[in-house]
Structure formats: C-alpha cells, structure tokens
C-alpha cells in the first residue's frame, strides 16, 4: 500500500494506475483518490521501493504504508446503514400517510380501525429497525446519567407508537403511527446530513504509525536480511539506501549522505550526515547509503513519540461541546417536564390515565426536535457544499462552529504558506559553459536543490555539457570532468568557497577557472497566500508564523507575507506546546499546516486546516482539507463559518418560536394527528429553507 499525497484528479488516478500496472511483477493496482492511496497486488519479488521509483519517474510522490497499521476504512458501513434506514423509513411513511389521509378525510368505525391496524403493521417493524440509532444513543446517554437530543426523540417515538397501539386496540379515534414514522424519517435525514458533512474519521496517530517502514534491511555478519520492523531491537545494524525513509532512531556507523528533515522539522535545507551523527525515524536519506546502529525502534522511536503527542491532543479536542449538544441540555429536560406536568394535570382533572398518556404523547410528538435535529446538520451541509465548490473539504461535524470562534491563526511555513519547492534566485549568474556544466551535474543528482536547478536551467534553454567521470560524494556534492577541467556542484567548503556565506539556502558551483558561484534558493509563496493573510488580519484575527526552518528564511518569508509574530527553529513538540499555551490563555486557534511536524499542533488547535498536498497524517489530524493550491479560500471559509453559525442560531430561534406556539395546543388536547403532522413538516421545511441561505 502506497500513500500518494500529490494526486488530485481523475487524470492522476489513470496515470498512477497505468504506471503501476506496467511495472514488472504487478498483478493489479487500484488508486483511491479520497484516501490518496494506491493498493497494489504484486508477485513476491516486487518491493515497495521499486514501485516508488516507477511513480517518481511518472512524476508522483509516493511513500510506503504498512497495511497492518491501518484500520479498514475503505468500506463506508455507517453511511450505508443510515441511508438504508432512511429509505425504509421514507417508504413506510408514504404508505402510512396514505392510510392516515383516509382517516383524516372521515373514515370511521371498522374502516378506521382497519386502517389503524394496517398502519401499526407497517410502522412498528419499521420503527424497530429505522430508529435504532436514536434508541442506542439515548440508552448510552441515560446509562451514564447524561441527557442528549436522542432521549426525547426515543421517548417520543416509543410513546407515540405505544399509545397508538393501545388506542387502536381500544378502537380509539386518534393514532399517531404516521407521526411516529414521520418523526423517524425527518430525524434520520438530519442524522444522515450530519454524517455526510465529514469524511470517515481516521486516527492521525494511526496514520503516523502506518508511515513507518514496515520492513527493514538488517545487517548480520555482513549479510543483508530483510525483516519486519517489529524484529529490530536496540543495537541492531540497519542499512538505509538513498531515497529511503529512516526506519529507526539510530547512530550512523558507516557512510555519508544528506538528510531531508522537512517533514519532521520543517527545515527546508538538507542536512549533511556522516559517521557519529544521529538520525530519527521518518527522515529521508537523500544521496548515499547509510548503516545505522539502532538506538530506538517501533514504539520507542521519535516518530511514535510524535504519534503519542497527536493522540493526546486529539483527546483534548474531543471535549468540545457542539451547539446541538448545548441545545439538548436545555431542551430535553424542558420537554420532559412539560410532558409530565401535562399528563399529571389531565390525570388529576379527568381521572382518565388513557387520556393523560395521549396528551403526554402529543406533547412529546409536537415538541419533538425535528427542527432542532435539522437545525445544525442542514446548515452545516449547505455551508460545506459552498466551501467544497471553493475547494475546501469539511471533515469534522463541528469544524464550522469552531472555525467561526477563532481569534488567532497560526501558519506553518514550508509547504503551507509556501510551495515547499526550492526555486533558484540567481541562476542567471551562470552563463555559457558554466551553465551547461552545472546543468549536466544537476541532472546527474537526486538532490532536491540539484533537481530545482536542473529544471530552471532547462527552462532557460540551456543544453547540458558532455561530462565524464561523474561521481556523487554523499553529503558533499557531485563532480565531473569537462575537457580536462574538474567541475563541482555542492557544499561551499567542498568546492573551495571562502568569505561570507549567504544566509539563505544555497549550493555552489566551481569550475576551477574563477571563484565559486553561490546559487541561492528561495521558497515561493503559495498562490493566494497574501490575500489569505490580508483578509484574516482584516477580520481582526491575530496571524502568526511558526516554523522549524532557519531564522533568516522564516523572517524573509514573514516580511513578504505581512506577518509580524514569528517563531523560527521550532520543534514539533514546541509547536504543539505553543498552540496549547495560546489555548490555555483563552485564545481560539486555527492551525494551518501540512507536515509530520505539524500534526500534533493541528490536533491541539481549536480547529485546523491542511492542504491536500500535505502528508496523510497532517490531513487526517485536520478538520478541513484545502483541495486546491490556492490559500485565498481561507478568508471565505472563515466568513462562511460565521454566517453558518448565525443561521444555526436563527434555526434554534425558529424552533423555539414553533414550540411556544405548538406546546399550548398539545397541552390543551388540540394536537390531533393531522395537526401534529402538519406542524412537524412545517417546522422542518422552514429550518431547511433557512439553512439554504448559507449557499
């Protein structure tokens, strides 16, 4: 199983599947765009590294995932289950309403009783099946002494069905079978809308664990042996080839290379690494093979420590109380008190328990929160649809509520505010033969700066020179012979550069005929970044920049973006701690980030957004995924969230006004089945139409 963080459309799917299916030994390959994963069935000799190389040539970034560390998220059982119950409830409601219309039109005596019995035969099995989500949630709440919106719903459905069955057995005039099944149908619509506003929730900690390399090359007596990561213990020697991800925390005992730590720390510049240096699980080996002596593996590694940080942060966010839950705490006790008082009053006044129970059932039916049950999901669905058209996918049911409350925005730099791809600033300093030699060297290297330089020089129309004896020195650079002259591209000290060094990321070119040339690189702002920062600041929000990159790079970017509050060189745990400190101070923080180093901060924030180009773990930890490359949608998302919460409060007020008018009718005994059906439908339609204004 491979993670494909950069795929974004149907064309990507076909290109990836075509490339994988053409690879030797691959039997079948299927891509899931939503999860950004590829599942590959292959012959035993095929390894993930081979497929990653194939996809790299096709222009797609890929990482190996451990299928055993992932839950089964490919099947949407909950959504299908709700949709099936909704369909059954709708079918049953239509048939029961046909019978009820006949009763309302004047059918009486034996005909009315027959229609009531047929209604009972349809309604009772349908309710037993369709209303199970409400019954289960109500029981779960009552069992621990809590009250939620499903308690009055379940009680109203059961009481309506029970009293209707008793009335039918006694040849009574009124039965609420139609109201009971209609109630179930409308509330299932709300429940399904609520479910559809978010993707299937997956644990970010689980995704982090799946990024660990599931198999490791272990060295024993000089022989390489591929084993499961679980078999590696402290002290084992591990071989990591160029392009591979570090499977363990360890100390380099042989080899030299450069390490890409951007996903863990946000640091854009590759870091030289040699014998005696330590590396962490999750970092990427760029240029040379390394042998590591394992310090920590599996659950003891730094990658797992980061996963634990995310798990703790997620549990803190789970304590957020939604607007619907807050309404339920006030609404449910009030409805029950009114129903009990009405029943007691009628029982004392008439001495007829049957009449008193019917009045109590009518109160619960006519006040049952159809409107409240739809108030939040109808608005959330409408707002989510609007934002989806703007390129934003809402994953969490309460994300919009929390986004409307923010007063602080914290941006990551690399890959979030910026493209995360180095761009040469002064490649024009290389001309003629120098440019041709530099292009030839850059094309022969897999280093990120070399790849960026090669792309830039090629775009300028430079033709690579013919070089001989091209060799890459891991951790230093690449060199070759041109007409008897040794040319080099790499570190300053290696090519012989002296004097003041540039503060920003740079590589050096030397051809032995003049002083080495410093080639500076910068990270460009994402499209819409300036607009997003400007709009968020105009909305009165405090915008901050938090990055693991160097101070010079962060300061330059902050100045360009117009951000005043800046912190550089921040580790992942420090990012999460900074967000937590802001939260402890009463701030409502929106975190925007894309890398492994951001996942704990994303999970700790009040609400979080991650670009689709970010790593799976970051997208899973976030509440909202930015599907495109343009950050300008952030300002619109904040405005839409505030409008959505305003509509939710309006819906609550509409539901309250409806109940103020309906409760006296029910208590007075005037809530016939026809009035109850009309009142429920009118309130639900009103709330839904008001929700559509968000679009």
Describe the protein in words.
With 695 residues, the protein is α+β, with helices and mostly antiparallel strands. Among the domains are: 88 residues, Calcium-transporting ATPase, cytoplasmic transduction domain A (Distorted Sandwich), CATH 2.70.150.10; 103 residues, Calcium-transporting ATPase, cytoplasmic domain N. It has a seven-stranded mixed beta sheet, sandwiched between helices. Strands 6-5-7-13-8-11 form a six-stranded antiparallel beta sheet, with no helix packed on it. 50% of the residues are buried.
* Major sheet strand order: 14-26-25-24-15-22-23
The DSSP helix count reads 25
Structural class: alpha+beta
- Poorly predicted residue ranges: 198-205
Morphology = elongated
Report the average pLDDT across residues.
Answer: 82
For the CA atoms, what is the radius of gyration?
A: 32 Å
Beta-strand content bin: 15-25%
CATH level-two architecture of the domain at 421-523: 3-Layer(aba) Sandwich
Q: State the CATH class of the domain at 421-523.
A: Alpha Beta
List the helices and strands and how they pair.
Elements: E1 2-3, H1 10-21, E2 26-32, E3 37-42, H2 48-57, E4 63-64, H3 77-104, H4 109-130, H5 132-143, H6 150-169, H7 177-196, H8 204-211, E5 215-220, E6 223-228, E7 237-240, E8 249-254, E9 257-260, H9 262-265, E10 271-273, E11 278-279, E12 284-285, E13 290-296, H10 302-317, H11 323-350, H12 353-367, H13 370-389, E14 392-394, H14 399-404, E15 408-411, H15 413-417, E16 418-424, H16 432-443, H17 448-459, E17 468-473, E18 477-482, E19 485-490, H18 492-495, E20 506-510, E21 517-525, H19 529-538, E22 542-546, H20 551-561, E23 565-567, H21 572-584, E24 589-592, H22 599-604, E25 607-611, H23 616-621, E26 624-626, H24 633-667, H25 673-692
Parallel strand pairs: 15-22, 15-24, 22-23, 24-25, 25-26
Antiparallel strand pairs: 1-3, 1-4, 2-3, 5-6, 5-7, 7-13, 8-11, 8-13, 9-10, 9-12, 14-26, 16-21, 17-18, 18-19, 19-20, 20-21
Helix pairs in contact: 3-4, 3-7, 4-6, 4-7, 5-6, 6-7, 6-12, 7-13, 7-25, 8-10, 11-12, 12-24, 12-25, 13-24, 13-25, 16-17, 19-24, 24-25
């Amino acid at each position: 199983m491979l993670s494909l963080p950069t795929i974004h459309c149907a064309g990507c799917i076909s290109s990836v599947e075509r490339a994988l299916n053409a690879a030797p030994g691959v039997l079948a390959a299927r891509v899931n765009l939503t999860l950004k994963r590829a599942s590959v069935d292959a012959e035993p000799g095929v390894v993930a590294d081979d497929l990653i190389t194939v996809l790299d040539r096709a222009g797609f970034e890929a990482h190996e995932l451990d299928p055993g560390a992932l839950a089964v998220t490919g099947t949407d059982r909950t959504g299908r289950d709700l949709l099936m119950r909704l369909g059954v409830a709708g079918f049953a409601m239509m048939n029961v309403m046909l019978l009820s219309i006949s009763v309302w039109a004047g059918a009486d005596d034996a005909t009315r009783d027959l229609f009531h019995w047929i209604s009972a035969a349809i309604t009772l099995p349908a309710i037993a099946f369709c209303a199970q989500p409400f019954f289960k949630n109500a029981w779960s709440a009552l069992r621990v002494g809590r009250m939620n919106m499903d308690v009055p719903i379940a009680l109203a459905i059961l009481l309506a069905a029970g009293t209707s069955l008793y009335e039918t057995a006694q040849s009574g005039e009124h039965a609420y079978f139609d109201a009971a099944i209609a109630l179930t149908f409308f509330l299932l619509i709300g429940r399904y809308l609520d479910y559809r506003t978010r993707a299937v929730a997956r644990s970010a900690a689980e995704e982090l664990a799946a990024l660990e390399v599931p198999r490791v090359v272990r060295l024993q007596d000089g022989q390489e042996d591929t084993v499961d990561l679980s078999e590696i213990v402290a002290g084992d020697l591990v071989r990591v080839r160029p392009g591979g991800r570090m499977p363990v925390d360890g100390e380099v005992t042989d080899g030299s290379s450069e390490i890409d730590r951007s996903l863990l720390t946000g640091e854009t510049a590759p870091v030289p690494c040699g014998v005696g240096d330590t590396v962490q699980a999750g970092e990427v080996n760029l240029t040379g093979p390394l042998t590591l002596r394992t310090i920590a593996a599996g659950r003891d590694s730094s990658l797992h420590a980061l996963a634990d940080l995310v798990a703790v942060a997620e549990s803190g966010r789970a304590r957020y109380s939604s607007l619907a839950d807050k309404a339920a705490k006030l609404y449910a006790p009030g409805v029950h008190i009114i129903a009990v008082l009405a029943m007691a009053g009628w029982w004392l006044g008439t001495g007829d328990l049957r009449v008193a129970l019917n009045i109590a059932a009518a109160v619960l039916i006519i006040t049952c929160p159809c409107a409240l049950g739809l108030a939040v999901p109808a608005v959330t669905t409408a707002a989510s649809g609007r934002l989806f058209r703007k390129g934003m996918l809402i994953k969490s049911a309460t994300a919009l509520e929390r986004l409307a409350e923010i007063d602080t925005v914290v941006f990551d730099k690399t890959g979030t505010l910026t493209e995360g791809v180095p761009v040469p600033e002064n490649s024009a300093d290389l001309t003629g033969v120098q440019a041709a030699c530099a292009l030839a060297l850059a094309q022969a290297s897999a280093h990120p700066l070399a790849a960026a330089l090669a792309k830039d020089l090629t775009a300028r129309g430079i033709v690579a020179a013919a070089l001989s004896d091209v060799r890459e020195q891991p951790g230093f650079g690449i060199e070759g012979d041109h007409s008897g002259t040794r040319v080099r591209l790499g570190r300053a000290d290696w090519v012989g550069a002296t004097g003041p060094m540039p503060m920003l990321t740079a590589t050096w070119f030397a051809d032995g005929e003049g002083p080495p040339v410093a080639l500076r690189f910068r990270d460009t702002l994402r499209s819409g970044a300036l607009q997003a920062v400007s709009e968020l600041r105009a909305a009165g929000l405090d915008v901050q920049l938090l990055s693991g990159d160097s101070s010079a790079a962060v300061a330059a970017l902050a100045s360009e973006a117009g951000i005043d509050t800046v912190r550089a060189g921040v580790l992942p745990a420090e990012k999460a701690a900074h967000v937590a400190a802001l939260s402890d101070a009463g701030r409502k923080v929106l975190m925007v980030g894309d890398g492994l180093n951001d996942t704990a901060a994303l999970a700790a924030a009040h609400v979080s957004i991650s670009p689709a180009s970010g790593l799976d773990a970051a997208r899973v930890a976030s509440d909202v995924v930015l599907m495109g490359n343009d950050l300008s949608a952030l300002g619109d998302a904040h405005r839409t969230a505030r409008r959505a919460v305003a509509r939710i409060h309006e819906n609550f007020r509409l539901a309250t006004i409806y109940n103020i008018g309906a409760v006296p009718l029910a208590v007075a005994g005037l809530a016939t089945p026809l009035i109850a059906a009309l009142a429920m439908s009118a309130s639900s339609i009103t709330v839904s139409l008001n929700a559509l204004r968000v679009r």
